Structure formats: structure tokens, C-alpha cells
């Protein structure tokens, strides 16, 4: 396969059906932002919606906005909007709390639905908070155990013993970008009698997700990566229709009550997805998310996926051609179909190399101990941005500018 | 006691040592806002801080702002700031999640600290989410029970049997405004060998709170009422120094880990207050809160309390003098020392009366089934606002304008 030159790459941009969407985002012309898988870029609409909520509603109607501006129903309104991006029919998704808190809710729900079983299976390569929360759930349930793929068994498929109640899987691995086959693994989990819980943090908004079609039981995900909701914007939780009214979760706060404003003394959970709510949500952050979600109107998820794979394929091809011999090793699946919307390379000095890239306007991120991670967000990235990123990476490696002493000290927050 | 006339009331404003603080707030000149105990009013500083976070940081530095703008440390920075308002030395308060979620964390912690005991005591008159969450905690602990003051015993003091592990008390009752004696009740709870957990939702920022001095074990509170953080701004949680490193809570997400960015497989909780964090926080909402807290610099909590009591005393005096015979009955303690910063009156048609008040620019709220609730926020209310509110209430009751059919239908969200 011949290496495309600049002209060929510019043609790819000219033919990109999603190219007009870039204008919706607030982007620096001097930078290539390959970290939308960590914090998405704001749209103009997100900023405007936030201003409206802060100035006109909070600063105007004040308390009345809970009714007049629809604040109280935002979690289900935005949940249904996200539902259209992850293959969930209305009434099964709610925006609430954090991914970690939502993992707690759904793992407890799953354990409750399988009373004779006491094991949660998860991945040792999971984003750690999923494991930490699973530990927390296990700590509250006498006899419960957490078993990890890659530690207690080679693969999840090998670990589906009759004592397994729930399996918690990351749809896309946060570090390598490896994509799991959701439909096939969910079917295997169900054959074994267990509940399938999927973490969509690195797939929602990055590629087509079909929760209903795959028969998934529960899912969680974040909204500040590919959904561009803003720093720490509230997470979402999905519960399949068949579990609503059945599933119980112990974070039984007033927003999950069947009649929250009746101020009753005893808890009676809502019969629908609202039961997965707990307390009052951060409305300003939620409204930025509402504005951010508008960009998805009319986006074809098939076109999104095709562009995502093409951007990442181009990146891999150019890096391997132009940066050979400098110690980079691909950590992500080479095959686009097995990959999310990110590409990782291992390097012995990954921290320093990434700092050198960032100082030159190519923004990716570092994951300990030695991963350079690059996210490809099809809504706002161009093929020429990929070329620019590789040119800078080549320059950093060839000039050894990453050895600059100012890149030596690793920050606490990465 | 003679009824003060308008001139006397204007003199009270002229002599108010806090009067200049009103300029920090964005208030409508046509309204009297007596609902700061439900949703506080924005300050100019809060709006500016929010803009800075949204435009310059999210929209500028993007992912780098986690370090450069101090996003990651906001929860402890703001926690310590709130600590100065509630009598907590640094390192014991963190801003995180919602009040409901924080109640869950601290009740689990309390139960874990008293392994031979299995009862949680709470108040039947508590804000309901506290009870719902206590039910949730009890549901995950075999043999645990929830007992309610006013149902299972007349008062908390009578219920402190040797099986009680934790007592959850509201410092100020959300409906009546009744203020509990924190130091005395905490001492009684400790004598009985139990853990004292205080809900400060209606006292933080409303009156002096002395958690350390009272020997409180854990506390929670919200930031969108008297702290003016904005709709649904994140809540706070307090854990006394002596419990840090000892207390365990099962919402063990990555922000509570001793080394969150090491991405370790196993959970090891932070040794300090960060252990009460769970997942990634809503930074935009948190930054509005940061801006809001600036107004407290230099505020004397004694002056705040004196004004709060004086405002409410004036309200009660004027209402009882001018609105006698229209079916209002005081639901709050008459004695200022036993009251928070709010006054409630019972009325058979409380919903309609409140709607009529709101339509005339006097904003209070309704609590089912028959409570008119008025909050008095000393930072921005004037004595003439109290007079205006009573004049309008008198007019609504005398003219029976609350019988207008448009006030007949009660909204779902109140």
C-alpha cells in the first residue's frame, strides 16, 4: 500500500461527508487535538446552552426553572437522546452521577437479579475505577467475590462458571483501544446464566453501539469524552426494559422515588429508568451536555465509524512509515474492525515524548507506565490533522527533543 | 412589642453591617426572593468563574486544565473553604457527588466503625432522601435495621440503645426550620457509643456550625441553598480527622484511591478525606460554586446569625399582626435560638397561596401537604424585603386572590 502524500490526504478531507461538523466546535487553529477520548472539545452550542442556563434560568427565573426550564426532567431527556446513539429505545437510559457511581448501581442490581450466585467477573485490563467499584460492591455482600480476566482466568469466556452472577466488560479498552464483540460476548454470558454489564466510556459517540439488539442487561458510560459534554459532565446508565421494576439498587435517593415530591417517609422506587437516579443533579454541567448533544442530529453512525477507522488507519500507516526505528510499538489492534476510535503506541519514554508533542501543539495523552495514546474524534478531526500529528511526532523522535529536561518530571495528574 | 413601621424597618437596613453584600448578587429589583433555602441566588463572581472555566479552560487549554487550572484538586480546595464556614479544620471536608450519595458513604462508614451494632436511627421528619438512603444502606447489610424518631420512639435521646451504630440527624428541619442542639445531641450519641452523622443542608451558610468543637463524626450538606453554588451544585462530606484512614465506604471509585493515576488493579483508599471521593466531578458546576464561595470572605458568622434571626423575627411579627384570621399557623419555633434561617406557616390552601405570592413577585416555596416555607438569606435580603413580602401576603389573603383558578392545579415538581 503506497503512502498517501499531502495531496491525497487533502482529497480525503474534501470527500469527507462529516467535514462540515468541524465548524460546530471551538478549536484552536494551531493545535491538533487527539485527546477527545479523554476530554471532548466544546461546541458553540454547548457554551451557549450553558450561558442560557446560568444567566437566564438560574440568574432569572431562579427556583422556578426546575419547572419552567425542565431542569428536573433533563436526566431522562438527555438519557433518551444518548439512547439514540447507543441503540437503546426510549425509557432505558438516564444521565446521572458519575460512571463509578453508576457501576455501583448496576453491579448491585445484577447481583440482586441472580440471588444464588456470588461472583462478579471483570477484566484486569479494565479502566481501574470499574474494578475498584466492583471491590466496593463485593465488600458489602457477604460471600461475594471478584474474579479478573487475565489473573483468575485467561479470558472471560473461560470464566463463566455457574457461580457467576455478573460480568463487567469494557466495550473498548481505555489503553489499547481493543474493541470487544458486544453481541457475541453478551450471548455467551447469557448462555452461562449471568448478567452482562457493559462500560461504554470509550465507545459511546465513537462508534455504533447496539445495546438493545445485543440484548445487553445494563450499561454505563461517560459523556465528557466522545459526547463532548464538558469536564466531568454527568454519566449515563442503561437498564434494559425487562429489568425495570425488577432491578434494585441501594443508592435509593429521592430522585429515584416513584413520587419524589410527595416527601413520603418510606422509599418506593420508580417503576422505570428513574429508579437509577439518586440525588439532585448538577444542572449547569448537564446543560452544557445538552448543548453538546445537538451536534449529533443527523449524524450517520456508519459514516462516523468509517471515518474513525480511516483516520486511525492513516495514523498507523504514516507513523510506521515515518517513525520506524525510534522505539515505537503499536499497542492497538491493527485491524480497524477490532479497534475503537483510538491508537496507542508503546515507548520507553512515553511520558517525555508526549510532553514534547504537547509543547508543539499535538495533544494526546499518556497512560502509565509507557503508553502514548491518541484519540481520533471523527466529528472534528481532519485527515490533514493526522498528517500534521505524524510530522510532529517524527520531528520529536528524530531530533530527540523529548530529552529536554523540562519533560523529565512526571505530573501527578496525567 | 410595638410593630415597627416602614421608617423603623428602613433604619434596620441602614444599620445592617452586612448590607453591602447584596451588591454581589444578581437580583431582580421587582422580586423578593425567599427561597434561598431551596436554590441560592447567583453572584456575579459565580457567573464569571463559570465563564472562565467554560471558555478559557475547557474551550482553551482543554485536557491540560486538569493540571493547569487545578480542576483535579477543586474538591479538596472547595471542601476546605466550606470547612471554614462549618467549623472544620482543613483536610476533613471534600466537595463531591450529591447529598444522597454522601449520606450513603458516611452511613456505611459509621456502620463499619461499630461492627457489633446493627441499627441506624434517623428522624421521621427528616428530609426524605436521608431516610431512603438509610433504607438502601440497611438493605445491603444483613441484620441491619432503620429506626425512626417519632415512629419507633418519641425522641432520638430515648432511642440510644446499645445496638445503635449510627444516628443521622438534620441540623435544621427542612420543613419547620427547627434547629437541633448539635453539641448536646452529639455528646448524648457518643455516651451511647454510637456515631453522630449530621445533615447540614439547611444550616451550612445559614448559621454558625461548629463540627470540630461539637465532636461530630460525619456530616454532609448541600451547596446550592445558602452557599449559592447553583442548581444541583455538588454536595460536601465531612469526616472527622480521627476517622480518616479508619472509615471505609464502598463507593470506592478511582478519585478515592491513594494513587489514582497509577492505574493500579486493586483499590487502596487514600489516607485522608479524598477517600470520600468516588468518580470524576462536574467541573463546570464546581467552578460556579467556587465563584459563589468568594462572597464569604470576611463574613462574620455571628453577624450573619443575628441578622437571620432578626429578619425572621420581623417576618413572624408582621405576619401575625397583619394576617391574623386568615388561617395561617406558625409551624416554626417562635424562639429564634431554636430556629434555622427559615419560617414556615401552615395553611389549608398552602399551594394556592404560594402560587398567588409567586405571581406577585414574592418567591417562597410549598412543601406538601400544607406548608408555606420562607427562607431568609442574610447575605442578600433586606428588612424592607420582609415588609414587602408581608404586604403582598396580606393582600393575597384579604382579597382571596389565591382562589384564582390558575393556581388550582398543583405542579409535579414543587
TrEMBL record, chains A, B:
List of residues binding pyridoxal 5'-phosphate: 99-100, 127-130, 199, 202, 224, 254, 280
InterPro entries in the record: Kynureninase, PyrdxlP-dep_Trfase, PyrdxlP-dep_Trfase_major, PyrdxlP-dep_Trfase_small
UniProt keyword list: Hydrolase, Pyridine nucleotide biosynthesis, Pyridoxal phosphate
One Pfam assignment: KYNU_C
Reaction equation(s) it catalyzes: 3-hydroxy-L-kynurenine + H2O = 3-hydroxyanthranilate + L-alanine + H(+); L-kynurenine + H2O = anthranilate + L-alanine + H(+)
EC number(s) reported in the record: 3.7.1.3
Gene Ontology molecular function, alphabetical: kynureninase activity
Listed pathway(s): Cofactor biosynthesis; NAD(+) biosynthesis; quinolinate from L-kynurenine: step 2/3; Amino-acid degradation; L-kynurenine degradation; L-alanine and anthranilate from L-kynurenine: step 1/1
Cofactor dependency: pyridoxal 5'-phosphate
Superkingdom of source: Bacteria
Keyword Hydrolase carried by entry: yes
UniProt modified residues of type N6-(pyridoxal phosphate)lysine: 225
Similarity comment text for this entry: Belongs to the kynureninase family.
Record note on quaternary structure: Homodimer.
Protein purpose: Catalyzes the cleavage of L-kynurenine (L-Kyn) and L-3-hydroxykynurenine (L-3OHKyn) into anthranilic acid (AA) and 3-hydroxyanthranilic acid (3-OHAA), respectively.
The protein's name in its UniProt record: Kynureninase
Organism in which the protein naturally occurs: Paracoccus methylovorus
